[in-house]
Amino acid sequence: MRRLILVSLIGITIIMGSVYYLNNRKMLFLVEHAKMEINTEFHYKKYIKEVVNGKKSDVTCQSGKLDITKLGVYEIIFNYRGRDYPFTIEVVDTTKPKIKELMKLNVLMNTEVDLNKGMEISDDSGIYPRVTIDSSQLDTSQVGEYIVEYRAQDQSGNVSVFYRKIHVMKEIGTSQQSQDKIVYLTFDDGPSANTKKILDILDRYDAKATFFVTGNGKEYNGYINEAHERGHTIGLHSYCHEYNIIYSSMDAYFRDLTKLENMVEKIIGYKPRYIRFPGGSSNKVSIKYHKGIMTLLTQKVIEKGYQYYDWNGETGDATGNHVSVETLIKNATVKNDNNIVMLAHDTDAKDTTVQALPAIIQYYQKKGYVFKAIDDQSFYAHQSLNN
Ligand SMILES: [Zn+2]
Known about the structure:
Blueprint (H helix, E strand, L loop, with lengths): L1 H23 L3 E3 L3 E4 L10 E4 L8 E3 L9 E9 L2 E10 L5 E4 L3 E4 L10 E4 L7 E5 L9 E10 L5 E11 L12 E7 L6 H10 L4 E6 L7 H8 L3 E6 L4 H4 L3 H19 L5 E2 L17 H11 L3 E2 L4 E2 L10 H8 L6 E7 L5 H16 L3 E2 L16
The structure holds zinc ion.
C-alpha cells in the first residue's frame, strides 16, 4: 500500500513537472546583445534565432518604445504563442560621417577663401558632425595647388578625413591701364571670309590683334590656326552665339563654352582662357532669358580661371552691316586712353571694317600706340553690369 502511494506520488510529480515544463519552456530564442544602426529600418525577424514548433512569421513584436533616430538601449517585447519575450536592442552609430566635394575650389590669389563652399558633410545619425578644417598648408599669396584636410567626427566618435585639393590662381589681366600706349584690336564673331584680309592688313602694319571666335564659321576654321601662328591671340566668344540659348542658364553658357574651347583646342592645341561675352558683360538682352545671369557668369568665369574682356573703344560696326568706312574710322579714332580695347567684327558682311582698318591703325600708330594681342597682363576693360 505504502509502495503504491509512493509510486503514485512520483508519477504525479513527473506529470506535473512535465506539464510545468511544457508550459514554461522557452519556445523562442532571440539574439543577445542585439544592435542596430541608427536611422535604419528595424526588422524584428532579423533578431530571432529559433522558433520552436513554428515559423518566424508566427512571432509578433511590439517595438513601440524603440526610437531608431536616437542612440540608446531599448526594451522591446516579442510575443509567441501567447507568451512575452523581452528583448533589448541598442541603437548604435558605427557609420562614419560622409564628406563630399561638390565642386573643385579655385581661388584667386590674396582673396578670402570660404572653405565650406562646395562641401557636403553629413552623418547617418542626422546630427551634423563636428568638423575641423586644417588649412595650414594653404598659402593664398602663392599660385599653386594646396591640400586642405577636412575631418568630421560624429557623436559616436567615428571619424572621416577628406583631403581637398585647392587651386590658387592668379587672376588673368588687370583692371588698371598700363602706362604704355597700347591698342588691343579685337575681332568678334569670326572666322569668316574676311579673316584672311584682316590678317594681311595686320601684318602689313606689324599689328597684333585678338580674335574672339565662334563655331559658326567652320569652313574658315583654318584661319584660326593661321591667326594663331601669325602671333595673334585666339579668344572664346561663343560656339552658337544664340543669346536665348547661352544666357538661359549658367549650365547652358558653360556647355556652349566647353564646345567652343574643345573646337579651338583641336585647332591650336590648347584651350584659351580669354573670353568675350556676346553683347559684352554689360548687355541687357540677357535679362529676357535669365535675370542676373551676367552677374553670375562674370564671377564664375574668373573662378574657373578665365578672364573676360569688354571694350572701351569701338568701330561701331556692330550697329549694322556695311556701315560706311568714314563712320567706322570716325568712331574708332576718338579715344585717347593709354590702353584701348577696340571692338570690331570679323564676319562676311563686315567688308567696310576691313576697309577702315588701315586708317584706324595708322591713326593710332602715328600717336605712338602699339597694337598688341591680349595676353595675361592686358587691361580687360570691364564694363559695368546691367543684369
Ligand atoms: Zn558677337
